[in-house]
Amino acid sequence: MSSDGKIDSQDEIEKLKKEHHEFAYAISHDVGAPIRHVKEFTRLLLAERPPETETEEKYTGFIEQALERLGLMQEALLTYTRIDTDGGSKEKCDIKGVVADAVKLLETLREEKGVKLSVDMEE
Predict the structure, then answer these.
(1) Poorest-confidence range of 7-21, 54-68, 78-92?
(2) At 86, which CATH number?
(3) Interhelix angle for 32-48 vs 54-85, to 10°?
(4) Among 49, 54, 96, 106, which residue's Cβ finds the most Cβ atoms within 10 Å?
């Protein structure tokens, strides 16, 4: 890398790409255990003392939804890191289903923030 911060060669670019890939893989792999721990401890707490009020039930739902989103993000990041290692295999997918899932995952956040979300997809 030159003194002005610019990348000088293709080798440096490849090295940075490799470091980025290794970092993303490490993060995506390592974050899975804490997510599983929080999910399990939440399950144990709820088994021992179920929510007693509507507010507790609402907040418990937020925790469970947030953990689900975290798990999905972790899986997506892990999948992203595997793209280079498995040859970048591609497959067709139902984009409407993917968008519907994304909208569902954003529902709680949308309600909390008062955001209007609309999706217009051509047939």
Answers:
(1) 78-92
(2) 1.10.287
(3) 160
(4) 106
Is 79 part of any domain? yes
115 in any annotated domain: no
Number of domains in the chain: 1
Alpha-carbon gap, residue 46 to 52, rounded angstroms:
10
- What's residue 39's pLDDT? 93
What share of the chain in percent tops pLDDT 70?
88
* Stated length of the chain: 123
pLDDT of residue 2 exceeding 60, the answer is: no
From the list 30, 33, 37, 38, the residue with the least C-alpha distance to 81 is 30
For residue 18, give both structure tokens: 């490799």
Residue 24 domain boundaries? 10-91
Amino acid found at 29: H
Strands in 1-123 per DSSP E: none
pLDDT tens digit sequence for 15-56? 888 888 888 888 888 888 899 999 999 999 999 999 999 999
